[in-house]
Amino acid sequence: MAKDNSLVPLKMLLFSFHGANTMLISFLPLLLQYKGLSGKEIGWVLAVGPTVSIVAQPFWGYMSDKYQTVKRILMMCLIGLLISGSIFFQMTTLPLLIVLAGVFYFFTTPIGALSDSLSQRRADALNISFGTIRTWGSIGFATSSLLVGKLLDVIGIQYLIAPYLFMGGLALLVSFKLTDVKVDVDPIQLRDLRKLVKNSPFIIFLFLVLLITITHRANDSFIGIFITQLGGSEGLIGLAWFVGVASEAMVFAFAGFWFRKFHPLIFIIGAGTLYAIRWFLYAFIDNPMFVVLLQFMHGLTFGIFYLAAFQYVTRLIPRVLQSTGHLVFIAVFFGISGIVGSLGGGALIDTMGGNSLYFYMGCMALVGTILIIVYHLLPYGKEGKSNSPVERDENG
């Protein structure tokens, strides 16, 4: 019982933060559209977050490893989220939106990665499945997408700030009760970061997943606009996200039963194949309800892909660099991929429409999956022994 009680604040943090985050992913593009921005301009604003995350996530990850605390870094970021978010959501012109988005995302983007890193560490310490903890983020995302979608149908997309700050405030409150994790090694030094740069399997893997994660982030940014292009409403967008993230929650919740049966790369390849199939199906849809019905594949794609990739990266990086390594991975998964997905997706959906966007996404996911199969067959695809504590370079 003590074990369960110690995880309640962490599960509530995941629930509330991802509940807030669903509003950014599902409804922020619609708010920007309401403010008069074009698809290309929306892409520019959405690309700010991934761009900033490339610096913000490794920075906050390094600070977490250096001072051996995830809890205090999370609290700082959540305070920054509330202050900057209350200003960002009020902006109406493109230059101000871009500038304030930079400040807002500097604090916001590391929170999910830090909470996942803390969840992975707590799961390892308690000898339980990471997925059983992480599923609470999916539950929060699914619940919020459904309820906020219905709420915005009533009050209007222009009032998105109210439910967002409510969930962000709840996340800050529960963060005070988190159980931190101490690593029984010396604090990280700057020279230790060379261990990540020289970790060839880690670096190659990050490059290869880009082709798949770019398509995932493009979908995050534009599925709402795609549904409205097909004649759907904000409520239907919320329902689509609910179906998708509910399936994701199921995948995470039962990860302990299926995940250890095969090498993580096998699951990554399977999820990549399903990504390609999913996008090709979306490319030929002309009714928004079909998007909702096919959203169950979100769990079979993102749920499996993210869990397997996160676990694989954990095996590749040393314990003293866990937060840094995790946040570098997240910076690639959601950062670099988000920049390309937002800018490229915005241009494509403006000029060619949503169906063409999803066709090209299917082609990219297919190529990415083939490359990961090649990686798995080569020696680089075999995990090393770098998950032990870093051996210091005495020569500096």
Automatic annotation (TrEMBL):
Could you tell me which PANTHER family the record lists for this protein?
Answer: 3-PHENYLPROPIONIC ACID TRANSPORTER-RELATED, BLL5896 PROTEIN
**Protein's name according to its UniProt entry:** Transporter YwbF
Q: Name one GO cellular component term.
A: plasma membrane
Annotated membrane topology: Multi-pass membrane protein
Tell me where it resides: Cell inner membrane
Give the matching SUPFAM superfamilies. MFS general substrate transporter
Q: Which UniProt keywords apply?
A: Cell inner membrane, Cell membrane, Membrane, Transmembrane, Transmembrane helix, Transport
User: Which InterPro entries does the entry link to?
Assistant: HcaT-like, MFS_assoc_dom, MFS_trans_sf
Q: Is Transmembrane helix there in the keyword field? A: yes
Alphabetized Pfam families for the sequence:
MFS_1_like (PF12832)
The Major facilitator superfamily associated domain, residue ranges: 9-358
Provide the transmembrane region boundaries.
12-30, 42-61, 73-90, 154-176, 196-216, 236-258, 265-285, 291-313, 325-345, 357-378
GO MF, one annotated term = lactose binding
Task: Tell me where on the tree of life, at the top rank, the source sits.
Answer: Bacteria
